[in-house]
Known about the structure:
A: 16 helices; C: alpha+beta; Alpha-Beta Plaits; 2 domains; three-stranded mixed beta sheet
Amino acid sequence: MANHADIKMMTPLTKVFIGIFGFGCVLIIYRLLFGLGAVTNLNDLWPWGLWISFDVLGGVAMAAGGFLIAGTVYILNWKKYKVIVRPAILNAFFGYALAATSITLDIGRPFVIWHPIVMWQINSIMFIVAIHVVLYTSTLATESSPMFFEKFGMQKAYRFVNKIMVPIVIFGVLLSVLHQSSLGAVFLITPSKLSPLWYSSNLPTWFLVSAIMLGLNMVSFETIISSRAFKHKAPKEVLFGLARGSLIVTGVYLAAKIYDVVRLGAIGLAFNGSFTSNMYLLEMVVGVILPIALLSQKPVRTNIDRIFVVNILVMLGVVLNRLNVGMFGLADYISKTGIDYFPSFFEFAVTAAMVAAAVLGFKICAKYLNLFPETGH
Amino acid sequence: MKMNDLDVFRELLGGVSRRDFLKYFTIMASSMGLPLGVGAKMAEAVTNPKRPSVIWLSAQECTGCTESLLRATHPTLDHLILDLISLDYHETLSTPAGHQAEEARQKAIRDNKGKFVLVVDGSIPVKDGGVYCMIGGKPVLQIVKETAPQAGAIIAIGSCASWGGVPSADPNPTGATPVHEILKGTPVVNIPGCPASPYNFLSTVLYYLTFKKLPELDDQGRPKFAYGRLIHENCERRPHFDAGRFAVAFGDDNHRQGYCLYKLGCKGPETYNNCPSILYGDVGSGSWPVGTGHPCFGCSEKGVGFTAPLHALANIKYLTPNTFFTEAYPGKPETTSNIKALGAATAGVVIGAAGAAMLVGLGKKGNDTEEENKEG
Amino acid sequence: MSLNRRDFLKSVAAASGGLLLSKATPSAATMSKELPPEAVGILYDATLCIGCKSCMVNCKVENSKPGGALYTKGMQEPTYEYTNERIWDAPPDLSGKTLNIIKVYMNGNGEVKDRPENGYSFLKQHCLHCISPACASVCPVGALVKDPVNGIVHYNADRCIGCRYCMIGCPFRIPRFEWNSAWPEIRKCQLCRHRMQEGKYAACCEFCPTGASIFGKVVDLRKEAQRRLELKEGSESDFPLQTVDSTNKRTRKVSQYVKHVYGLNEAGGTQYLLLSGVPFDLLGFSPKVTDAHLPDLTWAYIAKIPAVIVGVIVVGTATWAITSRREQNKKDKRE
């Protein structure tokens, strides 16, 4: 079980990904040598851009599947989901690695990224975020470690980690709940800047709930993808279960969001035809309303192809939500100063490199580790 | 214009070259912002054998305006004044004196009725029947009132005549009054300044002679060509003002370096005049108050010169915020284009991907379910 | 559940159980909402400002000296932003090189000063030194700190990681970043803190020729601002130059004021106060900036964290205990 011979390493797509990643590495060195201004189009009025919105906010949200499945399996003891616990955690690990690398590149002084660990400033959400990234990335590494210990035959360590797995998972769930919500809380300080369509005192809660939405769909998505790519049968009971869970969470999210927008009196803004309102409607229709409409029909809920469609819709919707909060929701405010932002080619390239690295890393793990222990390999 | 007329006239001037002669009028025309060809037209107007009559009345004045006029040196101005125009009455410059002079005035008024140019120099005292300035036994108030209706044009030269000047300074013991207030209803051209720049005066006279009408005036009767802009706007030290570099005391480092004199009380920001453009007295560059390192004291501006303390800070009247000021808050209502494009592109990707997924994924007629169910 | 900061620190310390060695700054934990006792600030009266930019020039010169907010070791000249011809410093906006800028509001033909229609007004933009500064509250490493005595919000580059959260948090768009540096700093007005140690005060006030910017204790500045609002338009009054308690005064006609002192209550109050003849939203102060203390908004979230920690651990453990016992029972039955 050391090597999955049926997973081909050097497919053309992989080569493209390696190319993207290599180019990204060159850019990263350039960024470290010459500063952010040399690589990005960020400016004093757009201090955060694509990297924060997509790589960090989006990447972390995409990683939510890890704590959900781990919690389901180890705390709720729903053993059905055990087949996907390893890929889900590994996926979360790569999501966080992507976010952590991106934020390291995005901050002005990457070499002192460790400062928050020793210089506490407990009023700061960013401090909370930083501590969580560090703790949770290590937690995810621990949660994934059995695979490595297995691979390298370290029986003692393997048994030890398995023994302490439950507390670690509880810790992981705790960190995730805090971390997902604190990314929303980051924007609590911007009442005068962020559009009222997104700004709410409940922003942390919405970030948590939408991350759960995305996490469930992400796990489902990649289970289907890997069952096809690595040619094993999809565990359909698991997928149907995830779809049911997704329907419930998405329904709750929709009701709560509508209530919140009405409560804040911002409902009119959603339909005034402006740029902001269009982005908001697109996010809600693609990520929430369509998925609910589809999932509420049993034939969709019990059809893997259709579940796959819903997975894609929710992923697009929630990532768009993160882009909206991080960039487009601020556009009205910043536009008034006349200062503009469009990510530079390099920002896109580095983002692409991050995604490529995550996909490649996942693939390597799939090939060399026992990622799907109960699918017959 | 016939060339020989000009030549004849040139002879009259006593050796002024033809070139200098035309040059003089060309400079005159350009200082008023008129086209170059007008210079020749002006030359023609003044070479007209019948020289236009000018009557210069002096009221409460110091003769400073006359003195500075005499020192206008675009070729030998004294010749021009005496020979090109017919200066029929001027208390300082006339050869006749006493009753003879008064007679000359009367005759000139009679002969040139409705055509002569009346120049008033100095403010008119009105208190106690105008007894504070009597000429030939008559109050100047009365002389001005009698002469004005018969004049073709009236020019008040100097700050005293234009708005009261020094004699009207608090407590104004003589009731010194500007000419335009004495002659309410009659158009009066004001050429303020203490003394008035001779070229602002000469340009106005020549304009009148050439076009038979007055130049364009502002709401205070000042020719716009000369008083259209604040001194501050054309000042050679303006860049220092814009850059915030000020002399703080006379003789300090900044003063020596020629920095802005605003903090020393320069009234340039509230005084309308063309001093920085045409300078003063024809003695070369820098020959105007600010050029020599002294703040403008606003001699030509009503309510500033002789009124505001010499070193008090000026109230900036109208600023032309230059390109080096950023708009405080553009407050643009529309979303900027790049972020909009990014949003549109993102929306395109989202709609495209979602649409494609739905078309492909939902298009299949549920075969999968059945298959899976069978297998299951 | 909400906590005060002291309790929070205690519970965090207990929860982390010595897991991490912390160097929490005590001042960060006691973020005050009160005006510091010796708070100093600036009163800017736009009706007195003539747009000469003397404050900008001297701000740059003075802050480029050792200790200044623009100073970096080995700098040759102040951080000028030249026009192409290298004629003079003409910054278009606040930036990593400019801490203070005079901007202009213009409407219509722009003829009359301090009038919103067909008028113009100046604006001096720099840090407002909030009484509860959002930038300091959001800084993850305490690089931006409010001085507990004089209230100056200042910056410590040695702590900064360059995350730019302060720029997101500031409701007035003040902190700026050195984009073109590989080791960048956040730059903002620090109220000439380095000059105060020499017994001087803010350069912009010292060099203002008209008394548009005056330096002083915030309590005095507030009184002065109120006094000016109570003056009758068109009457004459004395306006101090340089400092609020200066004996050097200038007599001047009182302009029309918007009857409001900006910074008295906005964002919880600021130490930079503004008076203007033009409504403040036209000068770029968003009407969405309320009088609420911004750090409260994030604190509302942070205060709940201990409850979440306890809740998740208790609920998680309990759930696990129940479900695993049930699982065990199932197994036992099967056997």
